[in-house]
Prior knowledge:
- The protein is α+β, with helices and mostly antiparallel strands.
- It folds into 2 domains: 2-76, 3-Layer(aba) Sandwich (Glutaredoxin), CATH 3.40.30; 87-221, Glutathione S-transferase Yfyf (Class Pi), Chain A, domain 2 (Up-down Bundle), CATH 1.20.1050.
- Helices cover 56% and strands 7% of the residues.
- It contains 8 helices and 4 strands, in the order E-H-E-H-E-E-H-H-H-H-H-H.
- Strand 1, helix 1 (10-21) and strand 2 (27-30) form a beta-alpha-beta unit.
- Helix 1 (10-21) runs antiparallel to helix 8, helix 4 (87-112) runs parallel beside helix 6 and helix 6 (156-170) runs parallel beside helix 8 (195-216).
- 34% of the residues are buried.
- The model is unreliable at 218-223 (pLDDT under 50).
Amino acid sequence: MELYYYxxxxxxxxxxxFVKELNLNPVMKKIDLLKGENLSPDYLKLNPQHTIPLIIxxxxxxxxxxxxxxxxxxxxxxxSIYYPNDAKTRGVISQRLMFDIGTLSxxxxxxxxxxxxxxxxxxxxxxxxxxxxxxxxxxxxxxxDSLFMAGNVMTIADYSIVATVSTIxxxxxxxxxxxxxxxxxxxxxxxxxxxxxxxxxxxxxxxxMVQPYxxxxxxxxxx
Length: 223
């Protein structure tokens, strides 16, 4: 297996964490987005959409992190722990994955994208901050009394969402008032293999890029 990745990418880190959990040893192919390596002719042949992560497994090419997580679970998680066979549990996992890409990640990028684009305003929009906070309110409600995002057992939903949440935290968003999400986040840090090395370092790289702009931006209001 080959895995194309970039450590600053939260979708890539979600896959990297899960690959570690499954004890897989893919050939690692770093694609530096800041250098535009994802736009090279060779990479575009693999993925015309030029996104990462991407895997090649016995000639099978697959992109999109959440699709990769599902594929890896179905092929390599022989005990069906992380993507159980039960249709209702899979339904909840799918909802969480779709919430991650459609709401949580989307609102994060909408809020902080000004710091990553040329001629951006470099200012925080408080309305967008509040919308991001609303996404955490949804997560808090989704969890109920569960230990993890889709129940009391860790699933691929946790790997996807923890990569997003860690990036949001590294960029200065304080979600500590959401007690269930905060407890879940700490639980993931301790239970996911090599969490610090695989995930936190990449999240901190993003945070380090954003923090100088945040210091110049208007004060953020999370209420």
